[in-house]
């Protein structure tokens, strides 16, 4: 009997404490976000401060946030007595697609992250000039399967060779030829054939050599079989 009374009293005390304003949320911290602002997150969640920390439905909050195309994963935790911590993992921009005056960001799976009509807000991401469109479901539609394959094949080869960040622009408008421009203003011409991976590895070595010589500008032409031709500016 004494034990039962003690349990009831303890439960009552816990209930009183939990429902007190001690556990009203005073702060919501967001970590791991770069492109998604905290204000946008709070707007998407539509939650208010000063509510009991145990009244928040974390499952619903997570489901709302995961709909944001930039967000790959969400973790939400309580930090007693009055703080909520939202940890985000954002998707990386794989490339910026360009078609005429329209731009869009895509992730590594080819999913649309953001559409930018008439402007390119990113100055540091690689731009791919290619025929594409965006359907009503906000999905990227390339001219054909070969075009899509060319985009990801080329960019993945650049990543494998460690020169992805050195390239500013890739033109894939022509199926048989590829034109690139580096951030040091060096134009690269190569054929889009079965030797593409080999030729991009050659480009990597040539760029290292030119960098060691403090050489900017000019053209690297790999359209002569095994012969690589570099022409300085002018």
CATH topology of the largest domain: Rossmann fold
The largest pleated sheet is described as: 9 strands, mixed
Do you know the CATH architecture of the largest domain? Answer: 3-Layer(aba) Sandwich
Order of helices and strands: HEHHEEEEEEEEHEEEHEE
Quick take:
It holds the Pfam family POTRA_1. By secondary structure, the protein is of the alpha/beta class.
Note down, in words, how this protein is organized.
With 234 residues, the chain is an alpha/beta fold. The protein folds into 2 domains: 1-90, Ubiquitin-like (UB roll); 95-231, Cell division protein FtsQ/DivIB (Rossmann fold), CATH 3.40.50.11690. The chain has helices spanning 2-18, 38-45, 58-65, 145-160, 196-212; strands at residues 27-31, 71-79, 83-90, 95-99, 102-106, 112-117, 127-129, 132-134, 140-142, 167-171, 177-182, 187-191, 219-224, 227-231. Strands 6-5-4-7-10-11-12-13-14 form a 9-stranded mixed β-sheet, covered by helices on one side. The longest helix has 17 residues, at 2-18. The chain starts with a helix and ends with a strand.
């Amino acid at each position: 009997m004494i034990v039962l009374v003690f349990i009831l009293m303890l439960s009552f005390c816990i209930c009183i404490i939990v429902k007190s304003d001690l556990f009203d949320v005073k702060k919501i911290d967001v970590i791991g976000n770069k492109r998604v602002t905290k204000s946008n997150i709070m707007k998407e969640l539509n939650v208010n401060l000063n509510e009991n920390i145990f009244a928040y439905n974390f499952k619903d909050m997570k489901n709302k946030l995961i709909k944001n195309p930039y967000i790959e994963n969400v973790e939400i935790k309580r930090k007693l007595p009055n703080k909520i911590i939202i940890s985000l993992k954002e998707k990386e921009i794989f490339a910026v697609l360009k078609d005429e005056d329209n731009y869009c960001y895509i992730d590594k799976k080819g999913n649309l992250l953001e559409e930018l009509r008439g402007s390119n807000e990113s100055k540091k991401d690689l731009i791919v000039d290619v025929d594409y469109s965006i359907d009503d479901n906000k999905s990227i539609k390339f001219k054909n399967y070969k075009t899509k394959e060319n985009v990801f094949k080329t960019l993945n080869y650049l990543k494998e060779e460690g020169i992805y960040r050195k390239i500013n622009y890739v033109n894939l408008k022509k199926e048989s030829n590829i034109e690139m421009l580096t951030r040091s203003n060096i134009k690269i011409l190569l054929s889009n054939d079965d030797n593409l991976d080999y030729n991009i590895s050659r480009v990597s070595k040539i760029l290292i050599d030119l960098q060691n010589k403090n050489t900017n500008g000019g053209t690297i032409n790999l359209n002569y079989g095994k012969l690589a031709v570099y022409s300085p500016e002018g």
